[in-house]
Structure formats: C-alpha cells, structure tokens
Q: What sequence folds into this?
C-alpha cells in the first residue's frame, strides 16, 4: 500500500453514514429512487431564502478583478464586522470584527480552532452522542477525543464532565442544537459547566476552552432560544457555518468567533489566523463571504422542517416508537426497539428505509433519522417503520 496506515484504517472503518450512503445507492439502482426512503444524510432540502439568490446575483454583477484576489487570512474586514455586529446582539457580548475569522464551513472552523490550541496528546472532551467526525478532527491536530455521557434526556451532565476532565484536557467540544439528538443544552447547565471549566483550569493551571459547534442554532422550533455561549464561560469559541440555516453546505462558508473576554484573546486569534492559512484553507471563499455579510440573522423557512418533524413524530409515536421530540435540528433520535441498534437498522433496511445506527454517534441503543427530506418520503416510509417495529413486539 502507498497510502498512510492511518488513512487506510479510516477507510477500513468507514462510518455508518458512508456505508448507508453506499447501500442507498445500491438499493436505488435496484428498486428506483422513489421506492427507497433515505433518511441517512443531513443534507438540507429546504431551499435557501430568495434573498440569497438576489444577493448572489447582485454580488456577482458588481465584482471586479480585485474581488477575486487573496485577502487577509481572517477574511474581509467588512464581512467580519457584519458577523460581529450580529453576534454582539445574539451573544450579548461586545464582539468586534477583530474577534471573527471567516472559515470554510463549520468543519473548517473546528479544525482551525483545534490546530490553534492542541499540543500532541491533549484531550478534546465531548459529550456523547456526538457528530461522527470529531474524533478525526481531534486526531488531525495531534489531539485525542475523549467522551463523556450525557443525562438520559441527552442534557449535559456537569458532574460527569467534571469527573472526565484530566490534566490533559484542553477543549470541551459541545454541539447544541445537537446532531444527532436535537437537544439544546440549557442556560443553567452551560453556566454550571462554565464554572467547572474555570475551576478545573485553575486546578490544572491551564486554560480549558469551550468550543461550541453550532451550525443548527437557527433550526429550532416552538420559539425556543439557544442560550449564549459567551455568557456561560469566558474562554469560549464559537465555530459555525451557514450550511444548514441557509441551506448552502456546498458553498463552504462559516466562521469562528472568540469571546472578547477570553484570556490570551489576541494570541488565540493570531494562532487561528495562521492555522487557517497553513491548513491550506488560506481564506474562506471570497464571493460567499460577501453574500453572507448581507444575510445576517436570516434562515430558511423553518416552518418547513417543523412540518416534517410533526409528520414524522406523529407517525412514529402511533407505532410505539419512543423518542424526545427534538427542539432543534432536523434529526430525530428514537430509541431502538431492541438493544442492538445495528440489527434494528438492518430490519429497517429490509423495508428500504435508510437511517444511521446510534452506535455511529457513540449513542448505542438509538438510531438517527435525518428528516430533511420530501414530505412524501416521510409519509411513504410509514408502513415500513410500522412493519419493522412490529417484528420485535
Ligand atoms: C454537528 C455538526 N458540526 C459540523 C458540521 C459540518 O458543517 P459544515 O458543512 O458547515 O462544515 C456538521 C454537518 O453535518 C454537523 O452536523
């Protein structure tokens, strides 16, 4: 083999999502796409706001040569300023353009932040279930992902977090609203966790960062609010994107924002700026930066996802599935009717329903349904969901 052992192992242990994607392609070729109910991937299916197309056309129409050139690694000052102005209100903190770095999506943001703060062997602690890519992101920069359980309702468990922090912990990486559970962490638990991080930081004489991955912040239902992370803990960093809230994941645009109250704030921004460059991102896409600068606070029509959530939840509850109705994201994370979630996911596959076992997210005993699909896919899958659970009654 000529490729690295590490990548060889990653390919060999291909994620459940990837396997499901490949299985889906096979089933679609055999039975026709309309007869396969694919809930495996979180690819938004509500169109971007019309404003996005308008701004995009206008921006393209007014671009000159210099608008396609290299720029500061942090992004255009005007764009960082526009993000900061919005964030200052959202986070209730005096965020300025100097606290913001534009990135290639949330993935780019997380990798830049981890590159900036990790030394070899440092631990990145994350509550589970969690996004599948975190272990690779930590490993990319010499870190080690360690996990900590959440409460039975998937809320943060501050005591468990306190017990899991070691002298090697450098980052607590959280994601709220959460993929795969849809849970939004409460203001109270974030505040308690903030106090724990401050106390553990003093105990181990090091700064422990709270890195908040929040691409689903605007995909929330029933008027719920996602609490401010900057108010909860001073050494906090937000990494996020416009991928999900305005349905443009392929455009690779997001940002990092450092809490203006953070210790070593300027060092941190400087390190992240260099990391953005040397990881090869150099800067976030120029055109998209200019577009999102004019779209602060906007989102797709969330009522579309709310309707899909209701169709799905009402149907599944009627068949006896158990779950917490997600207050945010476009994921539902029901309990598997049998302890082995992989076996149950296989039973759904027989019905040509593709979902991801919770095991893939460090959440065994559950499975994830991404309901960012057409309404008729949800409705047509219902008889299969019913037959699958009945097999195990
Ligand atoms: C929790 C979480 N973080 C990060 C990402 C990556 O987002 P982006 O496409 O903006 O890089 C995703 C994408 O699904 C996600 O679910």
A:
């Amino acid at each position: 083999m000529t490729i690295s052992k590490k990548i060889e192992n990653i390919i060999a242990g291909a994620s459940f999502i990837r396997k499901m994607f490949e299985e889906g392609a096979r089933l679609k070729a055999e039975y026709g796409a309309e007869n396969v109910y694919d809930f495996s991937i979180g690819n938004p299916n509500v169109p971007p706001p019309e404003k996005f197309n308008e701004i995009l056309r206008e921006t393209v129409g007014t671009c000159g040569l210099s608008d396609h050139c290299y720029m500061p690694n942090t992004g255009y000052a005007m764009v960082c300023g526009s993000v900061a102005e919005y964030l200052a209100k959202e986070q209730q903190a005096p965020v300025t353009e100097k606290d913001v770095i534009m990135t290639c999506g949330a993935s780019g943001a997380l990798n830049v932040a981890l590159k900036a703060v990790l030394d070899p062997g440092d631990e990145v602690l994350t509550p589970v279930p969690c996004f599948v890519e975190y272990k690779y992101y930590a490993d990319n920069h010499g870190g080690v992902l360690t996990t900590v359980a959440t409460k039975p309702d998937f809320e943060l468990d501050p005591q468990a977090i306190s017990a899991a922090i070691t002298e090697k912990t450098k980052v607590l990486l959280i994601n709220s609203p959460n993929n795969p559970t849809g849970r939004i962490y409460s203001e109270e638990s974030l505040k308690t966790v903030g106090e724990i991080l401050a106390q553990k930081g003093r105990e181990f004489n090091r700064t422990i960062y709270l890195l908040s991955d929040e691409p689903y912040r605007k995909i929330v239902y029933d008027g719920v609010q996602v609490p401010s992370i900057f108010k909860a803990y001073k050494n906090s960093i937000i990494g996020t994107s416009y991928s999900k809230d305005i349905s443009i994941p392929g455009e690779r645009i997001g940002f990092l924002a450092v809490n203006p109250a953070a210790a070593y704030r300027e060092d941190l921004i400087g390190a992240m700026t260099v990391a953005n460059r040397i990881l090869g991102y150099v800067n976030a896409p120029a055109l998209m930066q200019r577009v999102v600068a004019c779209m602060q606070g906007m989102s797709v029509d969330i009522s579309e996802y709310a309707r899909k959530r209701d169709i799905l939840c009402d149907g599944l509850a009627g068949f006896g599935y158990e779950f917490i109705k997600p207050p945010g994201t476009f994921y539902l994370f029901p309990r598997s009717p049998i302890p082995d979630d992989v076996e149950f996911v296989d039973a759904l596959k027989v019905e040509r329903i593709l979902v991801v076992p919770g095991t893939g997210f460090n959440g065994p005993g559950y499975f994830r349904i991404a309901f960012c699909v057409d309404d008729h896919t949800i409705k047509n899958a219902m008889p299969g969901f019913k037959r699958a659970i009945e097999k195990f009654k």
About this structure: The radius of gyration is 21 Å. The chain has a mean pLDDT of 96.
